[in-house]
Amino acid sequence: MFRNLTRLAAGLTFLIVIAILISLAYGAAPALHKFGLGFLYNTHWNPVTEQFGGAPAIMGTLITSFLALLFAVPLSFGIALYINELAPTWLKRPISTAIELLAAIPSIIYGMWGLFVFAPWFADNIQPWVTEHTSGIPILGALFDGPPMGIGMFTASLILAIMITPFITAIMREVFGLVPSVLKESAYGLGATTWEVSWNVVLPYTRIGVVGGIMLGLGRALGETMAVTFVIGNAHNISASLFMPGGTISSTLANEFTEAVGDVYTSSLFALGMVLFLVTFVVLAFSRLLILRLEKKASRAPG
Amino acid sequence: MLTIYARRRLTNIIALTLSMIATISGLFWLSWLLWTLLSAGIAGINPALFTQITPPPGSDGGLSNAIVGSLILTVGGVVIGAPIGILAGTYLAEFSRESKIAHVVRFINDVLLSAPSIIIGVFVYELVVVNSGHFSAWAGILALAFIVLPVVVRTTEDMLRLVPNTMREAAAALGAPQWKVTMMIVYRAARTGILTGILLAVARISGETAPLLFTALNNQFWTTSLSQPIANLPNVIFQFAMSPYEDWHRLAWAGALLITAAVLILNIVAHSVLRHKQHSN
Asked: Is B125 near chain A, with CB under 8 Å?
């Protein structure tokens, strides 16, 4: 009896995920039927003419998430290195708790702070300087062109980076802990510096796990909604400049889902949701696989 | 020219300094955020915040309906999600451990855990709102329950696995059937751990906005009816912060301070309990 009850509960978890997939596919069917695969690369999103292409939102999601990783990965590596190798013992606990708290703050709070505090500061102090100094340089100039509005793709990426840093840091610290201490001690014994041990011994040993952790952070960034909705500016176009407003799949859903009229409009939003779910699914599966492989390797190694 | 030793030492010093700067910058963002919340939110904290309902722009009011709405949604989500999560976690830890099914369920649970919360919102919209024809607190509760579920499954399984096998064997040797072993022995030993998992789930959903956008929606007025749209702090904050009105902004900051304080306290309590637990084992 009890055993079956627990099995039922486990089965329910399974069912929910299947049901999510089916309902997204069902909702997305009319749009996919109408636009076909072109939905993925069509750049026009026009509710008036009922022409919907997902490309701006999909591109926005990918660009902001990728940029966020670019900032978050070195930052997380630095923090993990500091806490694991450098910090005095009495400081380890408070610092790691503080970094964990960064992950606990609700995303809407990041959004508000980004919109009211960070974006104006960024527009006043950083943006004009960057735009001025990059103009004229071929690619960089185009990337950082535009009026200093504060909000936009770049700000969204920065805030995403702060939000995912604690997750990547946590995984990095965990996998760094899996390195057999014999390995590290022998490197130190040969006279290696702390940095050389971290870069040439710890990192290669944990490479797979680190990539897995980064993918987990990527999954977070892809699906993040509220913080991005506040600061990205919500525009349906792809602009070359990162300082211009844009949109992501989740911000488009948050802004337009309840206001969408007509079957095709709603269905197109469902299709965007399905793309997002599938992408996060693949990213998660990949990261699990990598972390699992590292754990197997660690359990085989002596020490 | 530097000797090779001096160069290696220099690289080391530069790298370690950079890692220290990374840590300081992490702490810097946290303090900036918290400072903003405190300085902007504290002005709005007064008795009226807890006794009056959300006002139209330009008049006085509080957040009482949103606070109560958030409490109802959170409690509802936990009451539905947590028991199922505990049972599913029990299945993984006690009955199926390393079987194929267990691995599949564990993976699926991870998928649910990392599914973007806005997708959960869209799903519940399709499931409940479209079928019933209107937004309701029930839909919001269900959406939150789907977020609680995977968190509780994860922590329950982890906590049950910490219970030493000798305890199970001792009870089984006394002739106890397996359900009795689980209920009377294993649950009792893992009680604090499981409760902490639920606490973490509460912390996670009390700030969730995205899944409530299309389910519980929002409500300007006082309601405790579960079949109506219901006010909730995150959505009120979203609406008020995006508005052009100064007094709405002030209320939004006060609400933000309330939520963050609640979430951070829950997290700190949960983590310190967990640490204590892991040390004693």
From this structure: yes
